[in-house]
Design a protein that fits this description.
about 350 residues; Aminoglycoside 3'-phosphotransferase, Chain: A, domain 2; Phosphorylase Kinase, domain 1; five-stranded antiparallel sheet; three-stranded antiparallel sheet; alpha+beta; globular; single chain; 10 helices
Length: about 350
């Protein structure tokens, strides 16, 4: 009989006796395992998180994206082999590689090359007719972004006093994060108005690009040939380029040196501007996405979000208090650095 664990039943896909399954780890939203059938190429078994209160179909979104990329000849994404919609599990081709822990100039070039491919595909009839929805939490007006941040803040402020570090969380939100969003929203509005834009007007459709929504080297492996393969398309769809650029630069797992960030931006931004994109919008919105990242880092305090993380983690190796302390420290550090990072981003965008 195939090997069975509490998480993986390899009989789902009629795999032969002797099939081994072991956790790959690293996922924040899904359970991911390396599956090795005897005498066959290894594969990746992925089980998607399902929450009745969350209407997003992560499996269907990723399947649509991977099939589109394969048809389009994009080789830096894994192939979808098969899927079981009833059990919300998929089997993907395994890509051998290592995590990108110390990014290089070559890595920046490859990441930019991948995004350029997506930008160019976004202009094709095939992309428009593929049936893609907006990417997860894609908002095409500043008003939408601010409303999303407000929703996240309100959810964090609703955390009960029974949780560890509740008082510390409450103080951070009231004394630091709330005042910061007021300041950055005002600056954003002023910068947009000076560039002839408004907070309530959505960006034109021709500016919108296809994006994994969680794009960065944290979702990539470096193959033996030196190339990069990018993973995680559960939130793929149409997105605002300003969000894509900001998330790439701000993601806590990236920690990019200024020179590498500039190298990436100087390759990607001119391509976006060929679609009509205005770089001033990216600069205006950058700190708002920084505030949003502070909220994302605090997701562990929200029971529903913590349940999703726990599902993906499979085995908890740290105490709840330790996890919450670390995440609160990360949110504080993100906010502490946001002025400097915004200034660096603005300077680099102006110099492209």
């Amino acid at each position: 009989m195939p090997k069975r664990t509490p998480y993986v039943d390899t009989a789902f896909f009629d795999l032969p006796p002797g099939t081994e399954a072991s956790p790959l780890g690293g996922g924040r939203n899904s359970q991911v395992f390396l599956v090795q059938p005897p005498g066959r190429d290894p594969m990746v078994f992925k089980r998607y998180f399902v929450d009745p209160s969350d209407k997003r179909d992560r499996q269907a979104t990723e399947a649509l994206a991977l099939r589109f990329l394969e048809r389009s000849g994009v080789e830096s994404a894994p192939r979808l082999l098969t899927l079981d919609t009833d059990r919300q599990v998929s089997m993907l081709a395994y890509v051998e590689g290592t995590k990108v822990t110390e990014p290089t100039s070559r890595d920046m070039d490859l990441a930019a090359e991948f995004l350029l491919r997506l930008i160019r595909l976004s202009t094709t009839d095939e992309a428009r007719e593929a049936g893609f929805s907006p990417a997860s939490e894609a908002f095409f007006s500043v008003t939408g972004i601010l409303e999303n941040i407000e929703t996240r803040l309100a959810r964090l402020e609703g955390v009960t006093e029974e949780c560890p570090l509740c008082r510390e969380l409450s103080d951070f939100l009231a004394e630091r994060l709330r005042p910061a969003i007021v300041t950055y929203a005002r600056r954003c509005r002023e910068r947009l108005e000076s560039a002839g834009m408004t907070v309530d007007r959505e960006i034109p459709e021709e500016w919108r690009i296809l994006s994994p929504s969680d794009f960065g080297l944290h979702n990539a492996v470096k193959r033996p040939d030196g190339g990069l393969s990018f993973f995680d398309y559960e939130y793929f769809g149409w997105d605002d380029p300003s969000k894509t650029l900001a998330d790439f630069c701000l993601h806590p797992a990236m920690n990019l040196a200024d020179a590498l960030q500039h190298r990436f931006l100087s390759t990607v931004v001119p391509e976006l501007e060929s679609l009509g994109y205005n770089r001033d919008r990216g600069v205006a919105l950058f700190p708002l996405f920084g505030i949003k990242w502070c909220c994302i880092l605090l997701n562990e305090f929200v029971p529903r979000e913590a349940a999703r993380r726990s599902f993906a983690r499979i085995e908890r190796t740290e105490s709840e208090t330790r996890v919450l302390t670390r995440q609160l420290d990360k949110a504080r550090a993100m906010l502490d650095s946001l002025d400097d990072r915004t200034e660096t981003f603005a300077r680099q965008m102006a110099g492209i």
